[in-house]
């Protein structure tokens, strides 16, 4: 057997490989699925926020999260739970303008979603052990990726939006002073739980509750919360995708019942 000798202390030259990758598995399936899911959500949410209709069910008190809070005089009666400080909007202006940029900014700058769309759309890199097509990488120090550093500030605003969604979920049970419940309430609560899981498991939340503490022993309550958030953080990717699906499902259900395509089954009237 013939071996290639190398001088002591001298590194062996890397093998010259012309192929972009030696992987034989279907590594492209994962990025393709993520691209399809994210692409569908972007198209669906864009269409829905500009429709300006079928976002509220008066009989059930259901308000879609894509339009909450509805703060314009253009909102249908009963959907403005917090008043209408913005007056009337022109027909082309989305009624969910106040909150949608916050939610979109929170997800776009999310650490999990960065990995997802960097791989799926920008191919940077498309998968492990697969070369990326870009000749250079400048990180998140230049426009437009420098705005990724605002993620923690979007987290603060998203936490307020989560509180508004909780108010909407509770408010949907009350009608003329009486308690009511239907299938729409169940869907709304499932969506809120997924949104809560996504928000609480956020890396920024973990940093806020305990990232700057030098001695956990001096802050036992914050340490417990930090431990809880850390455990949730391990499932952050799951909540990120699950909440994306539940938001679409909740909005689609409210749109269908608001349009009169079918009636909402009631458990308690």
Spatial strand sequence of the major β-sheet: 1-2
Please report the total strand number as a whole number: 6
Q: Strand portion, in percent? A: under 5%
Shape label: globular
Poorly predicted tracts of residues: 1-5
Transmembrane segments: 27-47, 91-113, 153-174, 186-209, 238-262
Protein name: Succinate dehydrogenase
Organism: Virgisporangium ochraceum
Keywords: Membrane, Transmembrane, Transmembrane helix
Outline the secondary-structure elements.
Blueprint: H1 29-51, E1 56-57, E2 62-63, H2 100-108, H3 111-120, H4 151-171, E3 174-175, E4 178-179, E5 181-182, H5 183-200, H6 203-210, H7 220-233, H8 236-259, E6 266-268
Antiparallel strand pairs: 1-2, 3-4, 5-6
Structural account:
- It is a single chain.
- Residues 1-5 have low confidence and may be disordered.
- The radius of gyration is 24 Å and the shape is globular.
- 47% of the residues lie in helices and 5% in strands.
- The N and C termini lie far apart (85 Å).
- The longest helix is centred in the last third of the chain and has 24 residues, at 236-259.
- The protein is mainly alpha-helical.
- The strands form three sheets. The chain has a two-stranded antiparallel ribbon. The chain has a two-stranded antiparallel sheet with strand order 3-4. Strands 5-6 form a two-stranded antiparallel sheet.
């Amino acid at each position: 057997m013939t071996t290639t000798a190398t001088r002591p202390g001298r590194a062996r030259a890397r093998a010259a490989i012309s192929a972009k990758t030696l992987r034989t598995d279907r590594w492209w399936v994962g990025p393709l699925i993520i691209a399809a899911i994210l692409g569908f959500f972007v198209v669906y949410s864009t269409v829905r926020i500009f429709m300006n209709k079928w976002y509220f069910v008066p009989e059930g008190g259901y308000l879609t999260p894509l339009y909450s809070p509805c703060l314009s005089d253009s909102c249908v009666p009963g959907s403005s739970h917090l008043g209408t400080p913005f007056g009337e909007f022109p027909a082309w202006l989305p009624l969910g303008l106040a909150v949608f940029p916050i939610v979109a900014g929170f997800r776009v700058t999310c650490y999990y979603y960065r990995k997802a769309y960097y791989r799926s759309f920008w191919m940077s890199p498309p998968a492990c052990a697969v070369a990326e097509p870009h000749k250079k990488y400048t990180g998140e120090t230049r426009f437009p990726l420098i705005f990724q550093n605002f993620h923690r500030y979007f987290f603060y605003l998203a936490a307020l939006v989560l509180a508004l969604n909780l108010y909407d979920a509770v408010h949907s049970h009350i009608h003329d002073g009486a308690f009511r419940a239907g299938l729409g309430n169940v869907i709304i609560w499932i969506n809120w739980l997924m949104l809560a899981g996504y928000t609480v498991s956020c890396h920024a939340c973990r940093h806020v509750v305990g990232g700057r503490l030098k001695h956990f022993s001096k802050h036992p309550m914050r340490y417990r919360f930090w431990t809880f958030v850390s455990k949730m953080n391990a499932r952050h990717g799951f909540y990120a995708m699950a909440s994306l699906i539940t938001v679409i499902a909740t909005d689609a259900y409210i749109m269908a019942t608001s349009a009169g395509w079918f009636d909402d089954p009631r458990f308690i009237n």
